[in-house]
Design goal:
Layout: H1 6-20, H2 25-44
Length: about 50
């Protein structure tokens, strides 16, 4: 995953838990997932501006 090992991923998750708290993380994950889905859909669509 982006050249990161499990140690780095675990450290990033631990820091995110400390910063945002366990109640806010699911909301952030949901928002990130929606944003990535929207980005992928925009990439797949042909350019309609021209």
């Amino acid at each position: 995953m982006f050249g990161l090992g499990w140690t780095e991923v675990t450290l990033i998750i631990a820091i995110a838990l400390l910063i945002f708290g366990p109640k806010k993380l699911p909301e952030l994950g949901n928002s990130l997932g929606k944003m990535l889905r929207g980005f992928k859909e925009e990439i797949k669509q042909p350019d309609e501006d021209n």
